[in-house]
UniProtKB/TrEMBL annotation:
<protein>
    <submittedName>
        <fullName>Helix-turn-helix domain-containing protein</fullName>
    </submittedName>
</protein>
<keyword id="KW-0175">Coiled coil</keyword>
<feature type="domain" description="Helix-turn-helix">
    <location>
        <begin position="41"/>
        <end position="85"/>
    </location>
</feature>
<dbReference type="InterPro" id="IPR009061">
    <property type="entry name" value="DNA-bd_dom_put_sf"/>
</dbReference>
<dbReference type="Pfam" id="PF12728">
    <property type="entry name" value="HTH_17"/>
</dbReference>
<feature type="coiled-coil region">
    <location>
        <begin position="12"/>
        <end position="39"/>
    </location>
</feature>
<dbReference type="InterPro" id="IPR041657">
    <property type="entry name" value="HTH_17"/>
</dbReference>
Length: 90
């Protein structure tokens, strides 16, 4: 009978440790996913279709300073986090 109580105590401790480890891993995964999500790069075409505008309008917005673009070789990219941050609440 005493052995049963000892096994239950070990099982409860194991369960608590396991749940704590799972929570830590989920928090780590969530933070890692959030970092990757904010670093996502969009092409000019993707941004234009997101706003339902023409590429020339997107070019004008960049010249006006509304959006910041990044170049890699011949390609132009926009950070999704900056695109979302540029939206003005009305």
């Amino acid at each position: 009978m005493e052995n049963l109580g000892f096994v239950q105590a070990i099982t409860e401790d194991f369960k608590k440790d396991l749940l704590e480890k799972i929570k830590q891993e989920l928090d780590h995964f969530r933070e890692e996913f959030r970092c990757k999500e904010t670093q996502e790069l969009l092409t000019r075409q993707e941004v234009a279709s997101l706003f339902k505008i023409n590429i020339s309008t997107l070019h004008n917005w960049c010249k006006s300073g509304y959006l910041k673009k990044y170049a890699l070789g011949n390609r132009i990219y926009f950070r999704r986090s900056e695109i979302e941050a540029s939206l003005i609440k009305i």
